[in-house]
Amino acid sequence: MTKIQAAIERYVEDRDSLSDDELAELIEAVAASPELLLELKSQLMIAEMLGQQLAVDRSDFRAQVDQRIRDYQRGEVELDQRAVELRALAQGQLQEAQLRLERRQWMRLWLGVAAMLLIAAGGYYAYLTAPQWRSIARVDRFSGELLLHRRGEKIPVRAAFRVYYGDRIETATAGAFEVVYADGVKVQVNGSTDIEFCYGESSLQKVLQIRRGDVAAQVTPQQKPLLVETDQAIARVLGTEFFLATDRDSTRLEVHQGKVELEQPKLLSSVIVGENELGMASASGVTVSPITWPGDQKDLTFVFQTARQARWARTSSGAIQSYNLQPAGSATWNSHFAMKLQDGSFTVPPEAVAGVVAATTASGALSIQATLTPAAESTAEIASIVTLFDEHHSLALAQRGSELLLRLQCRDHADELVIGSLQAGAPTHVAVSLSETEFSAYLNGQKSARGTFDLQWNNWRQARFRFGEVHDVNPAWPGSLEGVACYSRALEAEEIAQESQRYLDEVRSRPHIPQAELIAIWNRGSQMPRPSEYAPGDAALMVRGLDVVRVLRNELFDESIAPGGQVLAADWAVLNGLRQPIANAKTGQAVRVVLEPFNDNPQLWGHVCSDDFQSDADRARPRYFIVSVTPYVAGT
């Protein structure tokens, strides 16, 4: 909610609540903005006049409604002309009030008179054309399911729609949409995002309020800065391409073209974030630094670092486009927003894959780099990690036992090489570079395999790009994946070594999250979250009690983490619209669990969490997040 919107609400609720300066500022803003004028008129009408003008117990109620319908059918041109006349009359009254009145009481009186004049002369027009009834942009691209908050209602949305002032929209993990304004501004809203489209200081200004999640935008030159507001920051944009992500602790801004001012309003500090720079805002301040990964972006066709960093792909036409990964099974994000692929997968949208294959076909070369962290020392079967494929061809990274494999296949032949070995919990950088019929593979910056193979790129049709597998289809790979980049050129050994060092340094620099590993028994749980509480296809958590039997390792300072103690832990009850095992876990069942502090897992923040442990004692107890859980068998 903007400052002027807040002033309007306060004025409608209590005419004496504004100071002289605030009232003067409101008059100036209303006189300059037809949209704000209509909003004020609409709110005053609802508060003071609607019950009188449209009371059902009046004898001419039906006639009034019929007349308003006939008026509306006369066409928007006539209504717009009448609006111009009404605005001119009202603004004249406002200006006269400012000139003639010297005391605060008279200023309030004339503001009220001007607003009531608008109501009396055009009440029906205000109802039909108030800003919340007028679309400000259209949804051009749409995927997944959304929850639209409009005029106090929650509306599940499964098709394209128009966006109105005041609309608040929540996306599920798989949900995404692109908003296009009349002046060409494009805003890509990605998964797990909560965004509201608000009024600015004038009708020329666009304001986006983001409670959580991320957006990518292409902003054409603006007379008034486009504002992106979060809990920690305000980004002012006049014309640029940028990516912005936020949670309750920080806001991250990446600028790919142009410049953006990033302000931390509580500290009255700001920085200018330029091209290929990163701005960070938090309670402690605001900073700017260069974007360091990927290093050389020549012929770069696809990027996924983490879910809270810029992700984009080059389309078949060569344009840069933000995208949203499509989850399946139990795929989600870990605490650093890397892909967590245990019994699940993420799929790249077809238009993004088409661009990768088109560029590779044209150049005859492809390179892929990725950083993966296995959750298990070995797998019983071959489990795919990264797969680029169509009906007859594939390039895949997979784990078999503790071995990392490179698997290549085309219509009439296949090859499989061991690149190296994997260790549970150890981040590993892997890269594959292909040029014509030769390829090389690298592990942690060191060449580990080479050979010849022709993937026949000219014959690829409707390729797909997937990370992980859903267990019902193929063996699932347990682990996390991040730092994926594709190029339409063959990377040389020196560049791969630099990329490996750069990304692994980034991973190792992250703060350590303390854990505890326990043998425990399920105790009672909270109620299952209701579908009406979260967006369709989205995720929700629930808290359960765990009675501690044995502590295997413990980095947490909590006296209840001891044999005989009880801890309260949350896990996903619903993920990607699917009911998860915790919802069906039986009281008394023994399990082996790994716990982390709930507040150290920002991927959980903002999601519905059912927590029935609300006694005074329970509310004071810490909440944990279940990182992993498996059935426990005595003797193991």
UniProtKB/TrEMBL annotation:
Domain FecR protein: 167-261
Keywords on record: Membrane, Transmembrane, Transmembrane helix
One Pfam family in the UniProt entry: Laminin_G_3
Taxonomy, superkingdom: Bacteria
Transmembrane segments annotated in the record for this chain: 109-128
InterPro entries noted in UniProt: ConA-like_dom_sf, FecR, Ferrdict_sens_TM
GO molecular function, one term: sigma factor antagonist activity
Gene3D superfamilies: 2.60.120.1440, 2.60.120.200
Protein name, entry field: Fec operon regulator FecR
Species of provenance: Lignipirellula cremea
